[in-house]
């Protein structure tokens, strides 16, 4: 065991300790975490041995044994977080960095929807949570104050009355329109041949309550459309005044920003028929494109790509 520690743990312990201490310092200042008795790094019951660039092998000191491989960045969503939106989202024991970022990316701030809309993270074991602070990174998740941490018996506080406990009345805020940087996932629906069932998917997409839709366009024209918009967006009438202002405030707007602006500017997506303006979740964007078929017969293909 001493050889394992010297070869694999000690060369990386400074970085692991720094991550833990940074998380603790960040969480100690966070207003919606109500327990502050973090142990010292050396008192943690688990040591994480780096296995590869993505994950760790935990060593349980009290049991003197190694556990199974852990990859907190595994890009897998293993549960459905949004089944019941009548209440704020409640998720238990989320120890995946990918899933934490997924929640943070997709749930809108309470101030933006005019109602209580926090993400309640309930951890059933305080010691396990503290151990995982050696692997996770909460600093980038907390600036918007979307998350409420509850530990063990604190679950009885769910949902918190923010007006009573913190003097925050979210109902006084007006609903904020979807912003360009809020749209961060794309479903790209591609038709490779005529009459291959694409219209069936369109009927589903166009009536989806949480999708921004853009009607059929030749795939090869997308780059040119974005390029022209980037060059001409300041000309009057190209975009709504709200989107022009938002683009102007972005320090370095990307092609993705201009593509999203096209979706948001599309009357079908978000003007008179903006069905999800009060949505608690950020919308996905869906693009239906066509390509000329090169052969007489082509097989049907649906390509749904998600970019984060």
Description:
With 308 residues, the chain is α/β, with parallel strands linked by helices. Among the domains are: 89-129 and 137-172; 180-290, no CATH class. It contains eleven helices and nine strands. The protein has helices at 2-9, 13-28, 97-106, 110-113, 126-132, 162-166, 198-206, 222-232, 241-249, 255-265, 267-270, and strands spanning 46-50, 56-60, 65-66, 89-92, 119-123, 147-151, 186-191, 211-218, 284-290. The protein has a three-stranded antiparallel sheet, with helices on one face. The protein has a three-stranded parallel sheet with strand order 4-5-6. A hairpin with a 5-residue loop joins strand 1 (46-50) and strand 2. Helix 8 (222-232) crosses helix 10 (255-265). The longest helix is centred in the N-terminal third of the chain and has 16 residues, at 13-28. The radius of gyration is 23 Å and the shape is globular. It starts with a helix and ends in an 18-residue tail after the last strand.
